Amino acid sequence: MRDVSLSSRADIVCLQETKVMAVNHFFLCSVFGSEFDKFVLLPADGTHGGIIVAWKSATVQVLASQVDRHSVSVQFAEVEGHNWWFTSVYGPRF
To answer: What is the rounded CA–CA span in Å between residue 44 and residue 19?
Structure first.
């Protein structure tokens, strides 16, 4: 994942089905690269699910975030003044 995020030069990344319950700075840097310093996490429920939305705070501003049972939403602000929401939804299989 780290090679993909670095080669794409993305400022925002999202992973679903992470299977992680907690994230720290070391985990964030090892998975995405050291420029990704902020994130919102929906922890995995046991061995299923989990969402991480991470971004580079040097290039992206976040106005708000919301973590629900099966989704993570983040409101981003652009330099031009446009704000937009990103939502990642994960639903367990029944």
So the answer is: 5
Of all helices (H) and strands (E), which one includes residue 51?
strand 51-55
| Token pair in block for residue 77 | 């602000």
CATH second-level architecture of 2-89? 4-Layer Sandwich (3.60)
pLDDT band (50, 70, 90) for residue 61: very high
How confident is the model over 8-57, as pLDDT tens digits? 678 999 999 888 888 888 888 888 888 999 999 999 887 678 899 999 99
Q: Measured between alpha carbons, how far is 46 from 19 in angstroms, rounded to an integer?
A: 7
Domain boundaries, the chain: 2-89
